[in-house]
Design goal:
Length: 196
């Protein structure tokens, strides 16, 4: 699917309902990074990052929330980043990326406020440096190599997380183990954002 396209969301929802009968959980995970700052990004670059990282999250919630309301509740987890909390190397030189993830953070709190009455919980996860396909695309070949770049910023070794660290956070927020938790920013960054 293309998360920036509402029709694409509607098709996925139809298929999900056909196969499973209902929807309980929405994880907005899709995202892209573009290492361009305020001065070197073009308008198309900016719009592309915002369309996927922010508009995609809004469209996902817009499409799924009515189904959660109809069935009496559910859990939404939106993927933000430590780039919503710190700048500099924390956003890997991505101005639009920072802005897009900051918007996801605040949109999550907005939704947590407005849909708590429907028993819908909405939380955000904020990964730090995690070795995934996104890192591979920049030429990094292992978690240890990625960690070397962030040594001195992150208290926990090997200074970069593995991809399973993030779905484990999703699992907690999606399950009833977090039934009294909404609007939380769950930071999974090895302690990066504890440094000044
Ligand atoms: N890896 C990190 O260090 C890190 C840090 C902070 C936040 N994040 C966030 O975590 C999430 C997952 O990223 P990842 O690290 O696994 O990267 P990744 O590149 O491995 O995965 C991103 C996925 O998003 C999909 N995608 C991109 N555009 C899409 C679109 N228009 N419609 C549907 N799918 C689309 C890609 O196909 C890919 O499967 C992203 O939102 C990313 O911003 C990652």
């Amino acid at each position: 699917m293309d998360v920036s396209d509402l029709e694409s969301w509607n098709k996925v929802i139809d298929k999900t309902l056909e196969q499973y009968g209902k929807i309980d959980i929405l994880i907005n995970n899709a995202g892209i990074h573009m290492a361009k700052g305020i001065l070197d990004a073009e308008l198309d670059d900016w719009n592309k990052v915002m369309a996927i990282n922010t508009t995609g999250v809004w469209l996902g919630m817009k499409a799924v929330i009515p189904h959660l309301q109809n069935q009496g509740g559910g859990s939404i987890v939106n993927t933000s980043s430590i780039a919503a909390i710190v700048g500099g190397i924390g956003d890997a030189e991505g101005a639009a990326y920072s802005a897009s993830k900051g918007a996801v953070r605040s949109l999550t709190k907005h939704a947590a406020q407005w849909f708590g009455k429907d028993n819908i919980r909405v939380n955000s996860v904020h990964p730090g440096a995690i070795y995934t396909g996104m890192a591979e695309k920049t030429g990094i070949k292992s978690r240890e190599q990625m960690g070397e770049t962030f040594k001195g910023r992150t208290p926990l070794k090997p200074y970069a997380g593995e991809s399973s660290d993030i779905p484990n956070a999703y699992l907690y927020l999606a399950s009833d183990e977090s039934k009294y938790v909404t609007g939380l920013e769950l930071v999974v960054d090895g302690g990066w954002t504890t440094s000044s």
